[in-house]
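Illustration: Transporter.
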Amino acid sequence: MSWLLSLFNQDSVPHTLLIISLVVASGLVLGRLSLAGIQLGIAGVLFSGLIFGHFHLSINPEVMHFLREFGLVLFVYAIGLQVGPSFVSAFFRYGLRLNGLAAAVVLLGALIAVLISIVGDIPMPVAVGLFSGATTNTPSLAAAQQVLDTLPNIGPETLKMPGLGYAVAYPFGIAGIILAMLLNKRLFKIDIAQEAKLFDDNQQQQAHVPIWKDLKVENPNLNGLMLSQIPFFEGMNVVMTRILHNGQVDVAGQDSRLALGDTIRLVGEREPLEQLKILIGPESDIDLKQIATNLHSKRLVVTNKAAINETIGNLCLLYGVTISRIHRPDVEFSPTSHVHVQFGDELHVVGSQDALTSIEKALGNSLEELDHPQIMPIFIGISLGVLLGSFPLYLPGIPSAVKLGMAGGPLLVAIMLSRIGNWGAMTWHLPKSSNIILKDIGIVLFLACVGLHSGDQFVETLVKGDGFYWMACAALITLLPLLIVAAVGRVFYKLNFLSLCGLLAGSMTDPPALAFANNLSPSAAVSMAYATVYPLVMILRIIAAQLIILLVA
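Result:
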């Protein structure tokens, strides 16, 4: 049995792997336990780490620090890739409102931390640690410690205070965010399924999903004109897919010539199609799809690297088909001839059976290829994120450089890369299953290391000294801003509850709270709101922690 004891006691690679694996496995089991209908979920890994740390079953500090930061990078990078395609549209649709509310959470928390230090007779280094822990923001703790180290007459014991305050406040920081969500759910009598349906309905109304109309050509000015001679189709993002002429339905191409009495099928958004009825003619009684026995439609996925960046016009010309719609993550639109296809695009193609067979081979349409992630782009993206997160930003009045850190940098890079989609034959697309694995591995590594790091001092700090008093103060920093802003967002701005949960988790830059909120519903509302506010909040929390030290200490 000596080998087993040495495996738990001696620092080694097997020891590290064993402890981390046990913490994660037991934490996930703990997270499934239900108390009064409440489950910790993935946050159970943190509390499992605290238990292991309390009994001194920990790992090498340097290795722990690496695993914690690496896990955080994996998590936020996967989040960025997931929500990036919708980030820009979400920001301009309701991002200013969400970011304003999230900024209010940060400012209220900083104000409460300062008041607690002054009125509650808590040393400012401890208060800033409580502020970081209560808001589960590790980068702000690091920034505060760095600034504190630059001040005169600061001894080693004082430098430990922010970390101690952080360790005491962090567990309730996570639980407090979840508690705020549950309190709001009960207070406003929320029906999760109904909120998800309302969000999805709202997204569909604003997504401008293309529809089709069969119009009869009655405008004599169009008689004899080829499609290439009619400019308003391209300008209105409308595609003509089929034409009925002399009883024969054919695929519409640039050389298709219109004649009075023809019926044409147009695909586009509802408003321009209604406008085109005035220019072309009324809706036809004929359904072209029903009588087009020689034409077929099929959805094909772009998975062949040789097809990436081909234009829609070139594909239609080469294969004699019409591409009426393109579906990308969270968006579907009618493409113009100049649109370039990307890896993972789902194309709605109309043509003869032979033409569809030919273009299917060219596009790939391989689900196996779609589900197989490219590894190189992942690490290139992480490298760019680390570089951005390490870049020093010098702000007026701040003596030391501010950095986005290992959370903000990779998140912003992932969002930008997901918007680019492809870089030559290299794609930033990550299959959903791969994204989930990357995200979950990252968050459990992060939580396990945070728990192991804080576990040895956690119980002692609570039992002796002012630990419980500090925890109560930290609870105020966590709960009051969340409850105030949540009430304002729900009552005055009528925010969807799932978006509100994403806002609360993002305003605290808290991955476990995000994971908990995501467990409430599979809707994308939570992640979209989280990613919308996360970049600004990360910067504000780093600056706020430094300002507390510089202006008050």
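Reading the tokens back as a structure: The first strand starts at residue 34 and ends at 35.
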